[in-house]
């Protein structure tokens, strides 16, 4: 705080503050909804304001003078004279609802008929010769007051700009102090802890939380993170290299939130803030490179997949061993086989760098990359999953899977896309149909029949055929050995005719 205060020059600030407070009338500015200058600053402005403030008495005199020039019968229709900014002086006359004009329009008066400017429900506003003379004599005082105040405020602004450097320095210091104060208040309010910064290449977080997500959910499940690399820890028992974390798990299980919360904690630690975690050891990080969100725009002639590729390419080219790289669902915007191939190749490149690889957190649905254990024995790779519990006995689709939002070891082999769809309001009929098609695809079966959608007439015929088949199965055709042979065929024939009679 003392260092901040040393950067502020008090004299220019006092001078600027005094100039503003002496010039601007803040109470009047709030009342008029525009900047207003205090009295005593400019004599010309004060004279205009005094005249404008006494306009009510002056307009009373104007009405009396005007009535003195009008026929006696017309005076009863004259309500008043007013002054409106930009329109000047106007005469207000009672409105004749039948004609939409005033009951008197200057008949028999000097200067001819009056000019009607506009009308309200009960009155009409006119410009006559006397009003024009007043406009020429006094002008538009309201606009003159505004113009004069603009000139004075412009001079004030020019005088303030002479102290621009001191003001900018003070603004920067106050902004920094405001940010630090906000971080301190947030740390105390939300139970954040002080991180431990180290030169070791490590990110170790215990019970980390997403600072925003935990504020909008009833219960937030914290998670740990432990990724590290370098000669400082690689030969210590229990501190084997693990610079790449490959995270799998179903849709809606919290993978993206986990990646983001790690990045936020690392960033907050580097700006000097407490972090949302029980404990955090953060190594010095030079860059945080991400492929999480795709920002599309009509101004960019690139597909979403091309944008993803460029983000990953930049992360691979610009990352160093001290960098943190976050990649979420890379490869999903193209053919699944091509996407899985690109994902596996990217992962292989990071692993091949060895000690020169950055710290990487990857979330993916390409389970097949890990199912055949291609990367199981690679040094530095850790497989993790967001845990769920499945209960297939539940009647409702959205109750069959419980998301625990907890990080666990190993990798997931299911996405539970149908359950995620049910949670988000997709009709159960569509979800069930989708699961049938998914199982057929996994067995390399032809999905043509599953995709066929019968017409309403076909549905009606199939329903009728099903009803006939059920009646046939339930029918009793006699069939006993004692039945007469010549009568049995007739009974069967009658029964069949009765069943088939519903077809027509």
From TrEMBL:
Q: Which domain of life is it from?
A: Eukaryota
What biological processes does GO assign it? chiasma assembly; mismatch repair
Q: Where in the cell is it found?
A: Chromosome; Nucleus
Alphabetically ordered keywords of this record: ATP-binding, Chromosome, DNA-binding, Meiosis, Nucleotide-binding, Nucleus
Q: What is its main location?
A: nucleus
Cite a single GO MF annotation. ATP binding
DNA mismatch repair proteins mutS family domain location: 323-339
Choose one Gene Ontology CC annotation of this protein and give it.
Answer: nucleus
The family annotation for this protein states: Belongs to the DNA mismatch repair MutS family.
Instruction: Check the record and name the PANTHER family matching this protein.
Output: DNA MISMATCH REPAIR PROTEIN MUTS FAMILY MEMBER, MUTS PROTEIN HOMOLOG 5
**Record's protein name:** DNA mismatch repair protein MSH5
Q: What is the lineage of its organism?
A: Eukaryota, Fungi, Dikarya, Ascomycota, Pezizomycotina
């Amino acid at each position: 705080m003392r260092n901040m205060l040393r950067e502020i020059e008090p004299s220019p600030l006092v001078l600027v503050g005094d100039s503003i407070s002496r010039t601007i009338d803040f109470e009047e500015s709030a009342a008029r909804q525009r900047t207003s200058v205090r009295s005593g600053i400019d004599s010309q402005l004060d004279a205009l304001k005094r005249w404008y403030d006494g306009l009510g008495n002056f307009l009373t005199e104007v009405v009396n003078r005007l009535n003195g020039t009008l026929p006696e019968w017309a005076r009863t229709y004259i309500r008043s004279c007013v002054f409106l900014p930009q329109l000047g002086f106007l005469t207000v006359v009672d409105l004749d609802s039948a004609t939409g004009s005033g009951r008197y329009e200057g008949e028999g008066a000097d200067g001819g008929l009056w000019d009607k400017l506009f009308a309200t429900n009960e009155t009409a506003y006119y410009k006559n010769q006397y009003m024009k003379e007043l406009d020429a004599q006094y002008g538009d005082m309201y606009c003159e007051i505004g113009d004069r105040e603009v000139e004075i405020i412009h001079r004030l602004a020019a005088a303030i700009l002479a102290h621009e450097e001191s003001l900018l320095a003070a603004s920067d210091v106050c902004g920094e102090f405001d940010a630090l104060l906000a971080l301190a208040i947030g740390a105390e309010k939300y139970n954040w802890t002080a991180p431990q910064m180290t030169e070791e290449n490590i990110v170790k977080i215990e019970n980390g939380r997403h600072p925003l997500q935990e504020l909008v959910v009833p219960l937030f499940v914290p998670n740990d993170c432990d990724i590290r690399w370098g000669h400082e820890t690689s030969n210590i028992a229990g501190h084997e290299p693990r610079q790449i974390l490959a995270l799998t798990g179903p849709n809606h299980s919290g993978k993206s939130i986990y990646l983001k919360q790690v990045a936020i904690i690392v960033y907050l630690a580097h700006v000097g803030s407490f972090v949302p975690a029980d404990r955090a050891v953060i190594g010095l990080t030079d860059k945080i490179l991400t492929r999480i969100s795709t920002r599309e725009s009509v101004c960019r002639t690139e597909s979403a997949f091309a944008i993803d590729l460029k983000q990953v390419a930049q992360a691979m080219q610009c990352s160093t061993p001290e960098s943190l790289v976050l990649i979420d669902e890379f490869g999903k915007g193209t053919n699944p086989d091509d996407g899985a191939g690109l994902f596996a190749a990217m992962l292989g490149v990071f692993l091949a760098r060895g000690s020169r690889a950055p710290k990487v957190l990857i979330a993916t649905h390409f389970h097949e990359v890990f199912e055949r254990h291609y990367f199981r024995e690679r040094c530095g790779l850790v497989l993790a999953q967001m845990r769920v519990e499945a209960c297939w006995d539940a009647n409702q689709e959205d109750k069959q899977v419980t998301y625990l939002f907890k990080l666990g070891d190993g990798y997931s082999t299911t996405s539970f896309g149908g359950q995620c769809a049910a949670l988000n309001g997709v009709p159960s009929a569509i979800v069930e149909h989708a699961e049938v098609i998914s199982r057929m695809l996994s067995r390399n079966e032809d999905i043509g029949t599953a995709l066929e959608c019968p017409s309403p007439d076909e549905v009606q015929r199939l329903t009728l055929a099903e009803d006939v088949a059920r009646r046939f199965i339930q029918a009793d055709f006699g069939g006993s050995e004692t039945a007469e042979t010549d009568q049995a065929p007739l009974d069967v024939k009658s029964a069949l005719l009765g069943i088939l009679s519903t077809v027509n």
